[in-house]
Amino acid sequence: TLLIIGAAGQLGTELTAELRSIHGNANVIASDINKPGNAQLNEGPFEMLDATDADRLAAIIDQYKVTQVYLLAAILSAKGEQNPRFAWQLNMQSLLNVLEIAREKKLNKVYWPSSIAVFGPTSPVDHTPQDCVMDPNTVYGISKQAGERWCEYYFEKYGVDVRSLRYPGLIGYKALPGGGTTDYAVDIFHKAIKGEHFESFLSENSYLPMMYMPDAIKATIDLMEAPSENVKVRSSYNLSAISFTPQQIFEEIKKHKPDFTISYNPDYRQKIADTWPNSIDDSRARADWNWKHQYDLAAMVQDILEQLPVYHNL
Ligand code: VAH
User: Fold this and answer.
1) CB count, 10 Å around CB of 265?
2) 9 falls in which pLDDT band (50, 70, 90)?
């Protein structure tokens, strides 16, 4: 069985659904510190779990005979800057608990997401390579950089088959994100559908690497199903799809919603966005396990504007 920690989150909601469609509802245990917002998570086993509680984690793994753990619980970049010590504690303690239990109980596989937030102000900014200077200056980025080192350590030293992806900003319409710097690109759709004005908390030219959720889900499944010997990067793989600015996604939406309007009011999240790359070189993922993205900006906008109203009964 598989255990998803943080199953009620933006990524967890969609990854749990996909893994249940592959492995069967009963074989994927969803867990989160919050009760599930949507009924969907109750289509299979659900357990309340604080990701920093190692004893409860071990008990759940024993109870359900868990062989794979997906650790998706984390405090994201923007929220992390409001509460640095808590963000560090949650992001690191949860990972160290999972890696240690994976070693002790010889779990088959572990998945842990990293992020383009591992790059910092002096990292190369265009087509940022897999290996380069990384000087993240958000607690979230620091925790992801440290976490990547721990993943590689547990793989090299103990043979734990832990795998990881450096996600760009993830854009989905099913579950709301929590506390990210790229979340403007989710909120903009909800405003467009309701015919409301959109105020962007990033400036119009903030060009950031982004990815439509279906691509992120596909990349995660492809990586986890790849033969272990093909997974040559054991820190975390660069992953790329599209890059766009708030103005570019606004213009694309406007093609479908001619009356849509936007204004720009950068806040503290602008400083975070300014330390991140414009684009990512993911040639290693494309070479090692045949990664390729499906959705460009136009296709993503078209799909979300069609699906969001139906999914949320708007
Ligand atoms: C965040 N959505 O904004 C996350 C992600 C690259 C961005 O890590 O913090």
Assistant:
1) 10
2) very high
Distance from C-alpha of 256 to C-alpha of 189, rounded to nearest angstrom: 11
Residue with tokens 């004005």: 197
Percent of the chain clearing pLDDT 90 (strictly above):
95
Please report the pLDDT score of residue 35 as a whole number. 82
What is the rounded distance in angstroms from the CA atom of residue 121 to the CA atom of residue 124? Answer: 8
Quote the CA–CA distance of 182 and 44 in Å, as a whole number: 30
Active site residue 140: yes
Residue with tokens 């990512």: 280
ipTM of the complex as predicted: 0.97
Ligand 1: distance of its center to the CA of 141 in Å? 9
Residue whose entry in the numeric block shows the structure tokens 């958000």: 138
Please state the pTM of the whole predicted model.
0.97
Degrees, nearest 5: CA angle 144-149-150: 95
What does pLDDT average to over the chain?
A: 97
- The stretch 280-291 carries a mean pLDDT of 98
Nearest atom within ligand 1 for CA of residue 180: 3
How far is it, in rounded angstroms, from Cα 171 to Cα 112? 19
Joined together, the tokens standing for residue 38 give 């949507």
Ligand 1 atom with least separation from CA of 77: 9
Instruction: Identify the CA nearest to 206 among candidates 163, 258, 244.
Output: 244
